[in-house]
Amino acid sequence: MKILVIGGTKFIGLNVVRQLSKMGHEVTVFHRGKTTVKLSQNVQEILGDRTHIIDFKSKFAEISPQVVLDMFPYTENDALMLMKTFKGITQRIVAISSMDVYRAYGVILGRESDVIPLPITEDSPLRSSLYPFRNKSEKPLERIDDDYEKILVEKVVMSDPDLPGTIVRLPMVYKANICSKENL
Hints:
This protein is an alpha/beta fold. It has a single domain (2-99, 148-183), classed as Rossmann fold. Helix content is 25%, strand content 17%. It is built from five helices and six strands; from the N terminus they run βαββαβαβααβ. The chain has helices at residues 11-22, 57-63, 76-86, 103-109, 150-158; strands at residues 2-6, 26-31, 44-47, 67-70, 92-98, 165-170. The protein has a six-stranded parallel β-sheet with strand order 3-2-1-4-5-6, with helices on both faces.
């Protein structure tokens, strides 16, 4: 299967790319080129910034991926540009989301006061307040701005009847030193 991975050189993306390649998929990684990693010979690269992803539409059409896996859609605009860019090019979008969409996370942040039944499942209620990190000085990731909102990302990816979407909600993931030379 032809798979395009957006952001596959750091954190979880690097391991995903390596595993997909090991499984025999034709993998192309779209990334900024700011992280130097050794990818398998059979993994192709396209260098570019996701803020200009639409500019690469013809290049993406050339490789014609069956699946596009977006490792870091953080904002509604990220998701809108993702869907606009790949409509008519790919058969499915897979977007990585987070457990922070759940209302229970809003309770942890002190923005929600509901009692949340446990365990949390895919059907558990989502946060009612958007933008969990807006106007906060401390943010859990380096690239989170005030427009970060995975709930809106999910809505955009799942709402296009012509381009099916899949959401993968990750639990809290702690960054390990997976990009060190020792681990390559």
